[in-house]
């Protein structure tokens, strides 16, 4: 049983993304940069977005964290790149529903991020998967507030 | 095979709902409770429950005398010189906060210094930081030596007559080291500094003698020494407690209340406002009885033996990095470690699936994590109910971690 259990959390794609995450690093002159901490474990994520005309033109992240948080950041940034702020907000809501709601019905728009469904069974790890999405939400909020 | 002669005293280990044996290796966070403590709580609530000091009736008097008897027990347990030097609190955190906010708050100035160490738990660090911000005093840190123990030379170098208080943990909750608190106190007193010792990880593991240490204040929690949660002790030298300002005012701590002013009771009640955690204190009494019955030197000996075994098994895994001393005997039942290249959270999840309960995170010691330059680590901590099977279970699970993450499941 344990191996099945482990593999529902650590799907192969998560292991791969966690080992070698996409969009890791710094943007030149980002529109917004958000640093978030996971206070229970000391993990940090810095998310940078370049936005013009309400579109996320580019996105990068850096920081330290577990495989789940690194993989989530890698897959989220891939998914969000090129999306409008409104689309991004909807995806964030969909992701958080998926990870907390047992009756969640697959939302195809989440694409690769759907592999984090298994995290639901590991309540202590939900924060790891959502950290980068929370940083995204904060970034969007910040942009919307400063642009009035 | 090291077997625990104490394990059968702890019902927790015999009430497992799951088939999987669980290895509880997180006693530094909180200990399991012996049946004598649990039974004492049941007994108190069935036979003696009444508020203390207030009733003229027999039950209240019985509760009061039981409650006050624990104060004597604590006095003897840590060898305080007077029973009025024992103040009940809700735990180490509250004790330390009262010391900072009730004693030192108005006594420091901007040219003073506060000396603590980089290994302090947040509850012996953040309040001092607040004091430094409030008074403008300098908060200075003693570093570690090359064996990741408290650097005594660095302590001596940072000690001077501007230092008004030295606050130090007796045993580190991450490095597991036992600090030379008696020597520290002697040195600090030469410069007129007061000494505060955080005893959270020492109580229930080592014989503590506050007169021998000669510290000015000592703080500990009951729940890390077999007592219920929500009860702790603040020890202070009488002349200092006399000067301490209560942080809570209310019932039981007053002697006479007028329209505009109030006179207060003497120690210890002056510092214990409101209805106390009566059952908690009584549970603490039962826990101290149990510790006395087991004998602290035998407890220390047993945990040392088990720690040595865990240490040897851990270092035999090449990917394991241990923090703290390279010498097993310098770890008081606590070993913090990481596995090269695998985040401690990922390790802890696999361990949990394998029934092994260790802590992963910064252990309320973020300054120490920064100092060691790691984001987090794993920690195993042992007590008398642990045995060799717990260690074996951990080691087998760690091999599983390596198989899973290093060799792609
Ligand atoms: C060294 C140390 N100090 C202080 C504390 C705080 O104790 P409590 O949470 O019981 O107040 C702990 C417990 O985690 C500790 O290990």
What is the overall silhouette of chain B? globular
Q: Which strand-content bin applies to the residues of chain A?
A: 15-25%
Number of strands of chain B: 15
Distance between the termini of chain A: 53 Å
* Largest sheet: number of strands, sense, barrel closure of chain A: 3 strands, antiparallel
Per the CATH scheme, the topology name of chain A is Sufe protein. Chain: A
**Largest β-sheet summary of chain B:** 7 strands, mixed
Helix vs. strand class of chain B: alpha/beta
Query: What is the number of strand segments of chain A?
Result: 3
Spatial order of the strands in the main sheet of chain A? 1-2-3
Q: Could you tell me the mean pLDDT of chain B?
A: 96
CATH architecture descriptor name of the largest domain in chain B: 3-Layer(aba) Sandwich
| CATH C-level category of chain A | Alpha Beta
- How do the SSEs of chain B run, as a string of H and E? EHHEHEHEHEHEHEEHEEHHEEHEEHEH
Our count of helices of chain B gives: 13
Structure overview:
The complex is a heterodimer of chains A (148) and B (409). Chain A has helices at residues 2-9, 12-19, 67-80, 85-100, 126-146; strands at 32-38, 43-52, 55-64. Chain A is of the alpha+beta class and 148 residues long. Chain A has a single domain (2-147), classed as Alpha-Beta Complex (Sufe protein. Chain: A), CATH 3.90.1010.10. Chain A has a 3-stranded antiparallel β-sheet, with helices on one face. In chain A, a hairpin with a 4-residue loop joins strand 1 (32-38) and strand 2. In chain A, helix 2 (12-19) crosses helix 3 (67-80) and helix 3 (67-80) runs parallel beside helix 5 (126-146). Chain A is globular. In chain B, 38% of the residues lie in helices and 16% in strands. In chain B, the strands form 4 sheets. Chain B has a 7-stranded mixed β-sheet, sandwiched between helices. In chain B, a hairpin with a 4-residue loop joins strand 9 (254-257) and strand 10 (262-264). The longest helix of chain B has 20 residues, at 58-77. Chain B is globular, with a radius of gyration of 22 Å. The A-B interface holds A 2-3, 5-7, 9-10, 12, 15, 40-44, 64-68, 122, 124-125, 128 and B 343-346, 349-350, 353-354, 360-362, 366, 369, 375-376, 404-405, 408-409. The structure holds pyridoxal-5'-phosphate (PLP). Pyridoxal-5'-phosphate binds at residues 28, 91-93, 121, 123-124, 169, 173, 198, 200-201, 221, 364 of chain B.
